[in-house]
Amino acid sequence: MTLNGQELKEIQEQGAPKPSWQKALDYAMDKRGTPYVWGGTTKRGYDCSGLMLRAYESAGIDLPRTAAQQYSAFSRKISWKNLKPGDLVFFSGLGHVGMISRPGHMVHSPRTGDVVKEEKLSAWRRQAFVGAVRPDPAGVKLTTHLAKLRQAPAPVMPTATL
């Protein structure tokens, strides 16, 4: 039996595990139509960072809760011209986050009264762009570890007595 190129590609893809970003993107895209709920992190409703939190959690990557914390969780930032699907994009002083779904588009949970949706990145979004990150397990673990060290009380130092 001879396979054509498309058939061979399909067989290869079936055996290869999905990358984390693809799992996260599939999760977020599957939630389109779910209502925006401020502070929401469940199928009843999501806010912007709650959607990203659950999407990457489904891919085995733990993110912090808020958009600002998610941005700060990674030292490597991605420029507008280097965005790829799965990247988290941040806007308006870190007050909003979405995920690149395909070139020039993002999936996000926009605001009260709206739903999770995919939309084109507009000129207005470009102007409000703060930065982007490409989530990976190592980046979050390192940042979480450093944050815990900063919050820990200072070690007790021995004092000399005369």
Automatic annotation (TrEMBL):
Coiled coil stretches, renumbered: none
Pfam families to which the protein is assigned, alphabetical: NLPC_P60
GO molecular function: cysteine-type peptidase activity
Residue ranges of every copy of the NlpC/P60 domain listed in the record: 18-136
Keywords, alphabetical: Hydrolase, Protease, Thiol protease
GO biological process: proteolysis
Family, similarity comment: Belongs to the peptidase C40 family.
Protein name per Swiss-Prot or TrEMBL: Cell wall-associated NlpC family hydrolase
